[in-house]
Design brief:
The complex is a heterodimer of chains A (109) and B (114). Chain A is mostly beta strands. Chain A contains no helices and ten strands. Helices cover 0% and strands 53% of the residues of chain A. In chain B, a hairpin with a 6-residue loop joins strand 4 and strand 5. Classes of the chains: A mainly beta (109), B mainly beta (114).
Chain lengths: 109, 114
């Protein structure tokens, strides 16, 4: 079957670095997306990885290892506005996104 | 401003009533999707459309129907609402061209069925 595993909740301090891990099992694989979702709002696109390695985009970076079925999202210089849920979503062989329940990130001053 | 709009923003509905959630995009995207999001669960795909004139069933299609008469609109209909359909509904669209097929989401409709 298809399965996504992410921590339910994480807490970090403003200005620090946090890594949110995601492991996945899908029927086929066509890349992996990370989305950010603030409470009461729609998900918004953060990053996409299709090849192994690290993709850096400002304070956010995303890593993929296809052989291990593993990805992480790295957030640097945390700000209070980064408090949100982070959704890991691999794209399966039918080009459908498989969504995890997300990781709720709480930033403390 | 380009994007996806959904209507209504929120709705309280009596069980057994018929309801259509509207979704319109102006990005000329080929594919459109309807998801529901419930507390503690990931987004679950209800129905999708890869291109105008075609639709497909997602993970949780029962009790819902869709149509895709043109590129821009993708309405979701609940024929006879039940309390288990209380949820937040998101419409999304994606280009379905090229290697990266990023989905962009509308603001959502919060539906309560009593």
């Amino acid at each position: 079957g298809q399965n996504i595993d992410q921590p339910t909740e994480m807490t970090a301090t403003e200005g620090a670095i946090v890594q949110i891990n995601c492991t996945y099992q899908t029927s086929g694989f066509n890349g992996l997306f990370w989305y950010q979702q603030h409470a009461g709002e729609a998900p918004t696109f953060l990053s996409y990885n299709v090849l192994d390695g690290l993709e850096e985009k400002g304070r956010f970076s995303s890593f993929l290892s296809r052989s291990k079925g593993y990805s992480y999202l790295l957030l640097k210089e945390l700000q209070m506005k980064d408090s949100a849920s982070y959704l890991c979503a691999p794209l399966d062989s039918n080009y459908q996104l498989i969504w995890g329940a997300g990781t709720k990130l709480i930033i403390k001053p | 401003i380009a994007g996806i709009t959904q209507a209504p923003t929120s709705q309280i509905l009596a069980a057994g009533r018929r309801m259509t959630l509207r979704c319109t995009q102006d990005m000329r995207h080929n594919a459109m999707y309807w998801y529901r999001q419930d507390l503690g669960l990931g987004l679950r795909l209800i129905h999708y459309s890869n291109t105008a004139g075609t639709t497909g069933k997602g993970e949780v299609p029962d009790g819902y129907s869709v149509s895709r008469a043109n590129t821009d609109d993708f309405p979701l209909t609940l024929a006879s609402a039940v309390p288990s359909q209380t949820s937040v509904y998101f419409c999304a669209s994606s280009p379905r061209t090229g290697d990266t097929d990023t989905q962009y989401f509308g603001p959502g409709t919060r539906l309560t069925v009593l």
